[in-house]
Structures are given as structure tokens and as C-alpha cells.
Amino acid sequence: MWLRNPFGRLSKNETEDLQISTDTYLGNPWSEKHLINTGFYFVRSNNKTISLFETWYGKKDNSTGQKEQDVLLNLIRSGIVESLRLRVRFLDTLYFSGFCQDSKDFGAVTTIHANCCRSITAKVADLKVALHDWKHFKRLKTNSTLNLQWTSHDWCWQSWGRPKRTKGQ
Predict the structure, then answer these.
(1) 110 and which of 6, 41, 47, 51 could share a cystine (Cβ 3.0–4.6 Å)?
(2) Is residue 94 within 8 Å of 105, Cβ to Cβ?
(3) Rounded Cα distance, 36 and 55, in Å
(4) How high is the pLDDT of residue 164?
(5) What does the pLDDT read at residue 110?
(6) Distances from the Cα of 105 to the Cαs of 70, 148, 164, in angstroms?
(7) How far apart are the C-alpha atoms of 74 and 40, rounded to whole Å?
(8) How confident is the model at residue 141, as a pLDDT?
(9) Secondary structure (DSSP) of the chain
(10) 96/23 Cα distance (integer angstroms)
């Protein structure tokens, strides 16, 4: 869900081939240890990224039981970034948030992805809650000192068969 225009938060460096969101940001935008999230990515069209997508989609169609995100993650873990000499930036959840790791700053977040969630019903329910939180933030005065937090993503949490989370979990 786009809360504001995310393009201003993307790198304008033309040597970067792919910028992709993550489930949990590890602090280093170049670390291939990130768990990627294909909910948001920005790609520069060039021979390297065309080769990446041809490989990715070729494997995706022949990877029974794997989602496209899993296939791309496996390609990254197998060294495709290095072999194609791709420059990949892994995006900070401060700006490109998701249910796996909420942005800590309502003033900075641009997108929210309903990741770490098993069903469409749960995703929609928790996205509605996140939109409610966002609308509450937007109604506050600009100089408000309230320390807002996102409401727990209980629908998604429970979609994994887990009991409702309580504060501190």
C-alpha cells in the first residue's frame, strides 16, 4: 500500500540495477543476507537485469511449491548478483515497511507491504488497520510529540496459527 510517493526514497545512482524491499532490514543496503520482498522493487532496464528476469522467470515457472520471491532469493543466494555483476540495493524498512518489520517513523514511511502473512483475508484486514493508523497520524498536528506505533498485525499473526500477540512479544 502506497502511503506517499516512494520514488523520492529510491537511489538515483544510475549504476544501481535493482532496488528491492526486504522483510527485515539488516542495516547494510548491499548485504545479500537480506530476506527480499518482491512486493516493491525498482529495476533499471539493461542487459544485466534482462538476463536476471529471463533466468528468474524461467526458473519460477519450473519451481513447484515455490513463490516467485523464493526463486529470486535462491538465485541471489546462489550468486546470480555476482555472476551478472548486478548492483543491488536492499531497501530500508524505515521507508519501505512491511508487517515483518514496521517502519519506526510515520513521517518517513512511504509504502507498507502485507508480508509475513498467510492469507489474503488476513492481509486485507491488517492493511485496513494500518490505513487507519496512517489516517490517525495524518490528522495529528505537525508539531505533535506523540510517539505513535503501528497497531499489531494480529490477523496476519493469527494466519500462521499463532495466538494473538500481546505487548512485548
Answers:
(1) 6
(2) yes
(3) 17
(4) 66
(5) 97
(6) 29, 8, 24
(7) 18
(8) 73
(9) -BSS--GGGS---TT--EEEEESS--S-TT-TTS-EEEEEEEE--SHHHHHHHHHHHHHHTT-TT--HHHHHHHHHHTTHHHHTT--EEEPPTTTEEESSS--S-TTT--EEE--S---HHHHHHHHHHHHHHHHHHHHS-TT------PPP-HHHHHHTTPPPP-TT-
(10) 9
Grid cell of 142 as nine digits? 505537525
Residue 144 carries which side chain, given as an amino acid letter?
S
Q: What distance in Å separates the CA atoms of residue 41 and residue 111, rounded to the nearest whole number?
A: 11
Provide the grid cell at 117: 502473512
- CA atoms within 13 A of residue 148's CA, in its CB half-sphere: 23
pLDDT along the chain (169 residues), means of 10: 97 97 97 95 98 95 88 97 98 97 95 94 96 93 77 92 62
Please state, in angstroms and rounded to a whole number, the distance separating the CA atoms of residues 137 and 119.
27
Cα distance between residue 33 and residue 102, in whole Å: 19
Cell numbers found for residue 49: 537485469
Q: What is the pTM of this model?
A: 0.89
Residue matched to cell numbers 490505513:
131
Look up residue 88 and give its amino acid: V
